[in-house]
Write a structure and sequence with these properties.
401 residues; alpha/beta; formyl-coa transferase, domain 3; elongated
């Protein structure tokens, strides 16, 4: 293992998370230089190790697990056993940050609840990520991405007007919760630097989903009217949507009136600038179906490549609707180094999605590939707790590790 170089170098993280929200949070910390020990159940590990197919080529590791667990050391530990709890406490004693995504109150029965650990380790920063937070009537409920998307409102906003409500195609409720958790941890670290005191970060997936309703949430608060599903159209701007082209589809993003004027002048549509139904953005939003019907035959006159070239030259927002094969072969994505190759412990080389945070002085570093289950158990417990081979063998015999 190479020494970390990121801005969180020297910080130690006890990662008691699984699936996506918690591992996303911990991987961000790890990518930024923190020393993260991921605690997994002996013989089973993180649930996502079994979320396959697909597996990464040349390995037996699920693509799902590999995506959010790099730069972590895997230690198998049964915290349901007394000896496992004692080991956990010894590891936590040397840690700065504890991240968990168990149900509310579940860790207290193992002596690992926030109040218990805060009393023993007052400098510890304890981040809890759950479906509904630590308080409120729904706090005991389990949280899953799809049901949070449903309850948080985004499904009611997503999909065609006459179609079914739709969830987003990736688990955004989990991902946002993990990133908000990381933000909270970084703020708590600053507070600890100033006061010496740790604290609990309480992240509820429903809370974070309400937070990122953004303009649509504000549209409701301003009007007390539920926004309608608009398919690929924008609730506040027009034209800002998908249009068919001669050979496919394109996203056209005309964000303001000067841009609309430039668009019309370039493509023989100056008559639209003389029509009060089109002349302002507010008018276009009020007549969005007319805007769509008027521009659709225009957009279908040329292929997607032609439109992208013409619109980019005019500095008008646009883009093709890429399949993932096109995303990962896009020259800009490649130039931004968004795909990373790592030598996996299986001997294979695995491709993973890189961290998007670009820091000029302390860049993200990639020290460890996503670990095999329990790959670092002996090394971590030996180096940090001084356990020798005989002690490790005895713990393994009892299925503690």
């Amino acid at each position: 293992m190479t020494e970390p170089t990121g801005p969180l170098k020297g910080l130690r993280v006890f990662d008691l998370t699984r699936v996506l929200a918690g591992p996303t949070c911990a991987q961000m910390l790890a990518d930024l230089g923190a020393d993260v020990v991921k605690i997994e159940r002996p013989g089973a590990g993180d649930d996502t190790r079994g979320f396959a197919p697909p597996v990464m080529p040349g390995t037996q590791e699920s693509a799902y697990f590999v995506g959010v667990n790099r730069n972590k050391q895997s230690v198998t530990l049964d915290i349901a056993q007394k000896e496992g709890q004692e080991i956990a406490l010894k590891l936590i004693a040397e840690c700065d940050i504890f991240v968990e995504n168990f149900k509310v109150g579940a860790l207290a029965k193992y002596g690992l609840g926030y109040e218990q650990l805060h009393a023993r380790f007052p400098r510890l920063i304890y981040c809890s990520i759950t479906g509904f937070g630590q308080t409120g009537p729904y706090a005991p409920r389990p949280g899953y991405d799809s049901l949070i998307q449903a309850m948080g409102g985004v499904m009611s906003l997503t999909g065609e007007p006459e179609g079914l409500p739709q969830k987003v195609g990736v688990p955004v409720a989990d991902l946002f919760a993990g990133l908000y958790g990381c933000i909270g941890i970084l703020a708590a670290l600053r507070h600890r630097d100033l006061t010496g005191q740790g604290q609990q970060i309480d992240i509820g997936m429903l809370d974070t989903s309400v937070a990122w309703l953004a303009n649509q949430g504000m549209n409701y608060l301003a009007t007390n009217e539920n926004p309608a599903r608009l398919g690929n159209q924008h609730p506040n701007i027009a034209p800002y949507q998908v249009f068919p082209t001669e050979d496919g589809h394109i996203v056209l993003s005309v964000a303001n009136d000067p841009t609309f004027k430039r668009f019309c002048e370039a493509f023989g549509l100056t008559h639209m600038l003389e029509d009060p139904r089109f002349v302002t953005n507010a008018a276009r939003v009020g007549n969005r179906q007319l805007v769509t019907d008027t521009l659709t035959p225009v957009m279908q006159q040329h292929n997607t490549t032609w439109w992208v070239e013409q619109l980019e030259a005019l500095k008008i927002g646009c883009g093709p609707i890429n399949k993932l094969s096109e995303v990962f072969s896009d020259p800009h994505v490649i130039a931004r180094n968004m795909v990373l190759e790592m030598e996996h412990s299986s001997g294979a080389t695995v491709r993973v999605i890189a961290n998007p945070v670009k820091l000029s002085e302390t860049p993200v570093d990639y020290r460890l590939p996503p670990p095999l289950l329990g790959e670092h158990t002996d090394a971590v417990l030996g180096a940090r707790l001084g356990l020798d081979a005989a002690a490790l063998a005895a713990l393994r015999e009892k299925n503690v590790i």
